[in-house]
Amino acid sequence: MQLFLGDGSYILTNEGIDCSIPLEGSEQNVRAWYVSPPVIEPVRENGWVGSVAEGGSVNFRNIQFNPHGHGTHTECLGHITSEVHSVNGIIDKLLYPALVITVAPEIRLQADGSVDRVITAASISSQLEGLKSEALLIRTLPNEEGKMHLNYSDTNPAYCDVNILPLLNELGVIHLLVDTPSVDREKDDGELAFHHGFWGVPNEQRFDRTITEMIFIPDDVLDGEYMLNLQTAPFVNDATPSRPVLFPLHRNAED
């Protein structure tokens, strides 16, 4: 079905591209921040078991997971504030104009001998020049499918430099999506400089902005303009599992 947008362009509702990573109760589940794999297991109470395979009448399973550490999730400024703020309800539109860009992180050698991979303003500025978009999705290189099953803990994954923030402000970004476990360095002594800058915490708080981490954008998705349907589970929490779905833009009947 065609869904026409206000500028004359349209999307096809059967062309959605899921950029989330599925949650599974196994060692194969992507994870970060030193958490164990998610646990999905049948309820067992008073001799009853929630597993048809084990003789139960239905499958009735408990799921134990951490939204920040176990896959694609969307978070709000409540992630770094003493006050409790929920991400639920922030996504207030069906579709957001979105840009997909691919970045080769800059290699930086640290004083302690460690090697950082950093998404810098220089690495993305040429792809954003003169554009406006409410959502930005960053795909980092290399882009192996193994990203969907990695244990990122203690691997110092790629992260964003705070020098990107003025570019995002100029672009009009309110929803930032990355394929890394965090926009900040894994070990930064709790500074979380990018999180604080993006959300304006503590002095200029942006309640309308979200960060989505651990997405996966397949290689066959070209860089460029899309519409984004950012689906979030209605958890009353600073973060929630999410499912970003991209829709290619069509400009006329012939494309």
End-to-end separation in angstroms reads: 15 Å
What letter string, H or E per element, gives the SSE order?
A: EEEEEEEEEEEHEEHEHEEE
Instruction: Quickly give the structural class.
Output: mainly beta
What's the total number of strands?
17
Q: Sum up the overall morphology in one term.
A: globular
Number of domains: 1
Which strand order do you get reading across the main beta sheet?
8-15-14-12-9-16-17
Strand content is 25-35%
List keywords for this structure.
single chain, about 260 residues, mainly beta, Glucose Oxidase, domain 1, 7-stranded mixed barrel, 3-stranded mixed beta sheet, 17 strands, globular
Detailed description of the structure:
- The protein is mostly beta strands and 255 residues long.
- It has a single domain, classed as 3-Layer(bba) Sandwich (Glucose Oxidase, domain 1), CATH 3.50.30.
- The protein is 9% helix and 29% strand.
- It is built from three helices and 17 strands.
- It has helices at 121-128, 165-171, 193-199, and strands at 2-4, 10-12, 17-18, 39-42, 44-45, 48-49, 61-64, 73-75, 96-103, 106-109, 115-119, 135-140, 159-160, 175-178, 210-213, 224-232, 239-248.
- The longest helix has 8 residues, at 121-128.
- The mean pLDDT is 96.
